[in-house]
Amino acid sequence: MRLVGDNVEVGVYSLAKALFIAQDLELDLVEISPNASPPVCKILEYKKFLYEQKKREKALKAKSTKIVVKEIRFGPNTDEHDYEFKKKHAEKFLKEGAKLKAFVFFKGRSIIFKEKGQILLLRLAQDLEDIGKVEQMPELEGKKMIMFIAPKKNK
Question: Which pTM value belongs to this model?
Answer without folding.
Answer: 0.57
